[in-house]
Amino acid sequence: MAIVTRQAYEYGSSPVIFMQSDSSLSTVLHSLFSEHRSWFLEFITLNDAAPDDTLIQPEWSQSTHFNRLLARYSDEIYREHADMLREAKPLQSLWAQWYFGLIVPPMMLALVMEKRALDCSLEHFHLQFHESGRPAKFWIDVQEDEDARYLNAHQRIDRLIQRHLIPAVQGIEQHGDINAKLIWNNTGYLMHWFLGEMKSWVDEATLLTLEHALFFSRHLLDGSDNPLYRTVIPRDGAMQRRSCCQRYRLPAVERCGDCTLKPV
């Protein structure tokens, strides 16, 4: 039997006043994360005042901040390998994997399973950094996206891509050492993995719709190019990542277990 998601209620069956929850959206999301993936709350803070050392995307993506963060991260990665040539592309690939790895799964869970839609616009997301310079924790100013309350899962995830993921990728790519395609390949692999994680909570039809929309549709809902198109592809009877993330080029970082490169 298909599992009913929190979105699966009959729109318009009750007056709006009876559809309002007694709990704030931040409280509901905290409970949702606690129930399904409690470790999200180790790096996601909802509606608490963001510390002074946090930055929003227009700030952390500025060259002054971004280059400083990458320099710290490079020092950490190459600390025991001073004789190696430092490579910016795999370093930024791994830095970006930290960013999207921390924020994308919680946002997918929130948007697919909670009937009220979290506003994923970047101005609501304050990022705190590890002492090494990599992304470490998000402090989210929880706001409801009123226009998305009655949107389905596909429409909501499309909104996440448009309002958060695309500008965040652009903020990283603009510095010139990594191309957006590599970041999107990594992020597509992440999103496909988390669709699999949600199989126990979300009905199969919704997951299949999302898989098709994210990875087999050339365009987003507004007609623009879909940056996730074919970032995962059918190969050897399973869906696999399209290309290597390049992180293996960093010292002491092994290849992923399902790396697309041939074994050496």
TrEMBL record:
The lineage's top-level taxon is Bacteria
A Pfam short name: FhuF_C
What residue stretches are annotated with the Aerobactin siderophore biosynthesis IucA/IucC-like C-terminal domain?
93-237
Residue span, Ferric siderophore reductase C-terminal domain? 241-261
The UniProt entry, under InterPro entries, shows: Fe_iron_reduct (IPR008090), FhuF_C (IPR024726), IucA/IucC-like_C (IPR022770)
| Name under which the protein is recorded | Siderophore-iron reductase FhuF
- Species per Swiss-Prot/TrEMBL record: Mixta hanseatica
